[in-house]
Design goal:
The protein is α/β, with parallel strands linked by helices and 436 residues long. It contains 13 helices and 24 strands. The strands form six sheets. It has a four-stranded mixed β-sheet, with helices on one face. Helix 12 links the parallel strand 22 and strand 23.
């Protein structure tokens, strides 16, 4: 059912960011592969993507219990590790739903095993590129088949014997990096990776905390076969989810929002850097470290924004936040240019095309390029009815736009937000944005 968002007169309140998706995925997968006991994971992401990972690990014979944390609180899980070689052959096809992270991490887990597994997902996932993981895993000795010349899901994993490789990654991708590090844990020899640029490093942090022999020098990584020690994980708040409230707070004409428990890992905090470069009144308070991850509360206040250019090494550090940064660009003075973001075209939707389409429909001067977009802001956003193209980040970006727009904005397919943030629309309503 569609929802309509209207701008409130003021925007004030406290928000607790839901558990970080990236950390939640890894906490489940890595602890499932550990061999020293049972781990407890708290503030686990309530979204459908992370649930897909839980259900796949259960289907592979991992014992997982889950307790709902209730509104504003993440779930609590226990995971009993089975060891690197303890996964069982599933009785059915493994369904990753809409989750690219699940698919690529599990590809590294399933490669080269003596069991048959088939990994699939929804229509959106089956259109996303998987050759980037299949090629290096095949070089390591894994036997993998897939659609369209082994580049698209469903993927079939049917054995092989893994050997280490030295691999220059073609893209800066935390999912690809994590996939190959996971495969390297079971490969013969030392697996070495060279990244073209930095990407989020949750995998390196968590594997190191679990006793893995992993070294990093600049953009180079090396991992040796290692058994994993179980670790309890308190998942920090998801900065990708918090980014929607940051943009709402800095763009609304009368706003002050406190977003609590936000993970501010430097490899994820590019959105804060970019918004501050635009002139955003964003500040970090109560900075601390939780389970090896830097965490802070973020204060976002009404700001006068100016256009910037986003390109180069910062782009992988904020790639998921670009749809909502585009909302800030629409409210900023001048022309914002996004480059080096071709990855957006192969996300849950073509996020470049989808973002430009709704911006134009809302009266914003915007155009797409091969690897980004050009947005000329005017300080206002028009209303209307818009589709999210079944993309959770587009749906929530439209929700933020509704908190700022001159006339109400109707999102025709809002339920997709539940993939990563089930409480998003409730939080908008609590902040005074009417949801009808």
């Amino acid at each position: 059912m569609p929802v309509t968002i209207a701008r409130p007169r003021s925007l004030r309140g406290e928000i607790i960011a839901p558990g970080d998706k990236s950390v939640s995925h890894r906490a489940i997968v890595f602890n499932a592969l550990s061999n020293t006991g049972t781990a407890r994971i708290t503030n686990f992401s309530p979204g459908a993507d992370c649930t897909s990972t839980v259900e796949i690990m259960r289907a592979l014979g991992v014992e997982i219990t889950r307790e709902s944390g209730g509104p504003g609180i993440g779930d609590s899980l226990t995971v009993k590790g089975v060891g690197l070689d303890g996964l069982q052959e599933p009785a059915d096809i493994l369904d990753a739903g809409n989750s690219g992270t699940t698919t690529r991490l599990m590809s590294g887990v399933l490669a080269g095993r003596g069991i048959l597994t088939i990994l699939t997902g929804d229509d959106s996932l089956k259109s996303r590129p998987m050759g980037r993981v299949v090629v290096p895993l095949s070089l390591m000795g894994a036997h993998i088949s897939g659609r369209s010349g082994n580049t698209l899901a469903p993927l079939v994993f049917h054995g092989g014997s893994l050997k280490a490789i030295n691999y220059a990654m073609p893209v800066a991708s935390a999912q690809l990096k994590s996939c190959l590090l996971l495969a390297g844990l079971r490969a013969e020899g030392v697996t070495s990776l060279t990244q073209p640029a930095e990407s989020r490093d949750h995998t390196e942090r968590m594997l190191s905390a679990m006793g893995v022999k992993l070294t990093k020098s600049g953009l180079d990584l090396a991992v040796e076969p290692t058994e994993l020690d179980t670790v309890d994980v308190e998942v920090p708040g998801d900065i990708s989810s918090a980014a929607f409230w940051m943009v709402a707070g800095i763009c609304h004409p009368d706003a002050e929002l406190l977003i609590k428990n936000v993970g501010v890992n430097p490899t994820r905090a590019g959105v804060i850097t970019a918004l501050q470069q635009m002139g955003a009144n964003l500040s970090l308070i109560n900075e601390r470290e939780v389970a090896g991850e830097p965490v802070a509360d973020v204060v976002a206040k009404t700001s006068e924004l100016n256009a910037i250019e986003l390109s180069g090494d910062i782009v992988p550090l904020l790639i998921d936040e670009i749809p909502v940064i585009a909302v800030a660009a629409a409210m900023a003075n001048g022309t914002t240019v996004v480059r080096d973001a071709a990855e957006l075209r192969v996300k849950e939707s073509d996020r470049i095309q989808a973002t430009v389409t709704w911006l134009k429909g809302a009266g914003i001067d915007a155009q797409g390029t091969d690897d980004g977009m050009i947005i000329t802001g005017g300080g206002s956003i028009g209303g209307g009815q818009f589709q999210s193209y079944d993309d959770h980040r587009l749906a929530m970006s439209l929700g933020v736009a509704g908190l700022l727009s001159d006339e109400p904005i109707t999102i025709l397919d809002p339920d997709v937000a539940g993939i990563s943030y089930p409480g998003f629309w409730r939080t908008i309503e609590e902040l005074g944005g009417s949801v009808g």
